[in-house]
């Protein structure tokens, strides 16, 4: 059994520091095996924001696997943005931008979906390249078949059910097909500041609550689920409270339980709120 905390979109610079403080306590008391942080540590990739993020991470007792968000690439220093876009992330958050965490039950692969530029006006959208997909495929082909497989990226791979037009990472469909073939059980992301879980193939949802519990154990028939975390501590909220996910992996099955900030404490979401 493994327990993960999935936090996202901290946005230091626009973070509620009281909620941040409570999150440190909550994460340290739940003592997960791993904390997955799916990007947007800062608001504007400023050094002081990254220093706040680093101080926050330093206080967490559990290991952290992090990926870059679009807000973690500086929009103010264009030369740096083009020449060394992940320099601040590497310095303050984590040396590598595509980390892999593995033990004898679980493998978690981080992929970078944030880009320094794009052939369109808005550079905040995410992309995944064929090379990155091949890389995930290669790593998972070499991993023991018994490991539960998780991929983490900042940008969403499926939109929320109530907003099918929300933009997903470029090449999401192709990536999902590759991940399914490689036996991935969960894709964890953020960016939208909205929490939801969706199966890639909703037509085969079984007796369990759709989108909350994965219902298949074996790697071959594992059903891929996309899990989005809301914003853990930022004040940039989109109609939802601050939130993060607690993910339990046991006997090849994943259970996702969102935890919401109620203004004074972290608590479970109301039944059916997902
Ligand atoms: Fe964000
Ligand atoms: Fe983002």
From TrEMBL:
Note the InterPro entries from the entry. Answer: Calcineurin-like_PHP, CNP_phosphodiesterase-III, Metallo-depent_PP-like
Residues annotated as domain Calcineurin-like phosphoesterase: 3-194
Q: Which UniProt keywords apply?
A: Hydrolase, Iron, Metal-binding
Source species, domain of life? Bacteria
Which molecular-function annotations from GO does this UniProt entry contain? hydrolase activity; metal ion binding
Q: Which family does it belong to?
A: Belongs to the cyclic nucleotide phosphodiesterase class-III family.
Q: Which PANTHER family match?
A: CYCLIC NUCLEOTIDE PHOSPHODIESTERASE CBUA0032-RELATED (PTHR42988:SF2), PHOSPHOHYDROLASE (PTHR42988)
By what name is this protein known? Metallophosphoesterase
């Amino acid at each position: 059994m493994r327990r993960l905390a999935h936090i996202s979109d901290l946005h230091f610079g626009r973070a509620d520091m009281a909620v941040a403080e409570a999150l440190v306590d909550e994460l340290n008391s739940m003592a997960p095996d791993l904390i997955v942080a799916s990007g947007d540590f800062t608001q504007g990739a400023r050094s002081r924001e990254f220093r706040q993020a680093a101080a926050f991470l330093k206080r967490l007792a559990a290991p952290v696997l992090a990926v870059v968000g679009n807000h973690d690439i500086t929009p103010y220093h264009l030369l740096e943005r083009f020449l060394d876009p992940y320099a601040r992330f590497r310095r303050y958050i984590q040396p590598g931008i595509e980390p892999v965490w593995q033990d004898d039950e679980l493998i978690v692969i981080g992929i970078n979906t944030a880009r320094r530029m794009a052939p369109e006006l808005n550079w905040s959208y995410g992309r995944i390249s064929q090379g990155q997909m091949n890389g995930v495929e290669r790593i998972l082909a070499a991993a023991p078949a018994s490991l539960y497989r998780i991929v983490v990226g900042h940008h969403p791979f499926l939109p929320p059910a109530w907003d099918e037009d929300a933009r997903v990472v470029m090449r999401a469909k192709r990536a999902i097909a590759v991940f399914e073939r490689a036996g991935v059980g969960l894709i964890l992301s953020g960016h939208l500041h909205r929490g939801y879980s969706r199966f890639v193939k909703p037509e085969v949802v079984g007796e369990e609550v759709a989108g909350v519990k994965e219902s298949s154990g074996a790697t071959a028939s594992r059903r891929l689920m996309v899990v989005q975390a809301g914003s853990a501590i930022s004040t940039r909220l989109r109609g939802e409270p601050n939130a993060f996910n607690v993910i339990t992996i046991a006997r090849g099955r994943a259970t996702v339980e969102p935890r919401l900030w109620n203004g004074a404490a972290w608590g479970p979401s109301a039944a059916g709120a997902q």
